Amino acid sequence: MESIWPGSSSFAAGETPYGFYDSDTEFSGSGNHNVDKFADWAAKRLGYPIVAVELQEEQFYACYEEAITEYSAQVNQFNIKDNMLALQGQETGSGATKTDLTHRKLTPTIGRNIQLAEQYGSEAGVGGTVDFKSGSIEITSGSQVYDLTALWANVSESGNAIEVRKVFYEADPAITRYFDPYAGTGDGSYNMLDSFGWGKNSPAVSFMMMPMYADILKVQAIEFNDQIRKSAYSFELVNNKLRIFPNPTETYTLWFKYIVKKDRDNTLQGTTDGVITDFSNAPFNNMAFSNINEVGKQWIKKYGLALCKELLGTIRSKYASLPIPNAETTLDGDTLRTEAATEKETLVTQLREMLEQTSRKALLEADKDEAEFLQEKLAKVPYPIYIG
User: Fold this and answer.
1) Which residues contact 60 (CB under 8 A, 6 or more apart)?
2) Do 130 and 254 sit in the same domain of this protein?
3) Most buried of 49, 167, 171, 276 (most Cβ within 10 A)?
4) How far apart are CA 269 and CA 119, in angstroms?
5) Same domain, 160 and 257
6) What's the pTM value of the predicted model, to 2 decimals?
């Protein structure tokens, strides 16, 4: 059988399927890892010149290009996965200013943690990104039940569902019932209380003579006692239907705070245009071949050889055997494809395992183990003897 591979090649731009690396001098020039040297090496590893190798130079070029893009894809996939929390929401850019994170050092931030904290802050009512709004209804004497959805949401929020967070229906503030047995009494104190609108419920001297925190603690104790032990002023709120106790004996305005549910439950907060949203639009491109180190290029050569072996096996599998005078010869196409599949899987597995060992989590755990080991080792070092 005549050999298709002539024994040498001379690469020219445009001979690879996609041309990703045609202008990279490491790939197309005279360096140690150029595509012609790969073709020569791969042909010899496949048995040339002892056996015929039914591959042309363009096929060697295609396998080498695919091996480089596969290495680039594996490393980029790992980097995206390892940095996705920090990447989400970052701008991707466009046109000439399009972001390229390939070969870039990515610094993790706490932005994602802050976003999560804001959600908890919204629920706790201590911050966050959800607006707390104020609403009010008119309480009518003798009527205990009020539908806040009908009375407020349908009127002031265009029918959007609301969630009431606080109802301002309670006893007089504890400060108006505060009494300090250590304070003096007299017309002067009463006049001071009257000037603040507190009447004669409590002497005011203690607010000047005692630490402020002591007053605050006492006020909190009164309010907590009211909440636990007294039920004169209370309410039930179920499905935005408010029932107040005791039965109102006068007409007045009742205020409450609420949120619009769709504001809190909106998963598209902030802009989603021109930013990284998931794995698919993280701006990682094919690596420049010249930027890949020797370790990576060795992997690429082995993977490229496996691709060549797979392609050669496919070609030889077209016919299971060929007739020769007085006999026939069996081709090894199936064997080559099986070996190639195993080699490719092994190389990808080894690369992924190595990348996982360099993940942020793995490195932090390694630092932790090293620090604990050093502490244990230093603990066994004898202290110096002090001689006075």
Assistant:
1) 9, 35, 38, 39, 42, 43, 308
2) yes
3) 276
4) 11
5) yes
6) 0.69
Which residues 6+ apart lie within 8 Å of 176 measured at CB?
Answer: 198, 199, 201, 202
pLDDT tens-digit series, residues 118-131? 888 888 877 788 88
Query: For residues 136 and 148, what is the distance between their CA atoms, to the nearest angstrom?
Result: 9
* Separation of alpha carbons 136 and 89, rounded Å: 38
DSSP state of 161: -
The single-letter code of the amino acid at 116 is: L
The angle formed by the CA atoms of residues 42, 48 and 51, to the nearest 5 degrees, is: 135
Can you list the alpha helix ranges (DSSP code H) found in 9-90? 25-28, 35-45, 57-87
Q: What is the DSSP letter of 275?
A: B
137 and 240 Cβ atoms separated by less than 8 Å: no
**Could you read off the pLDDT of 352-387 as tens digits, one per residue?**
999 999 999 999 999 999 999 999 998 888 878 777
Domain presence at residue 340: yes
Residue 359 placed within a domain: yes
Q: Are residues 136 and 221 in the same domain?
A: yes
19 Cβ neighbours under 8 A, 6+ residues apart: 13
Residue 10 counted as domain residue: no
Write out the residue range of the structural domain in which residue 351 sits: 25-75+282-379
pLDDT classification of 1: cutoffs 50, 70, 90: very low
Residue 94 in any domain: the answer is: no
Domain count, the chain: 2
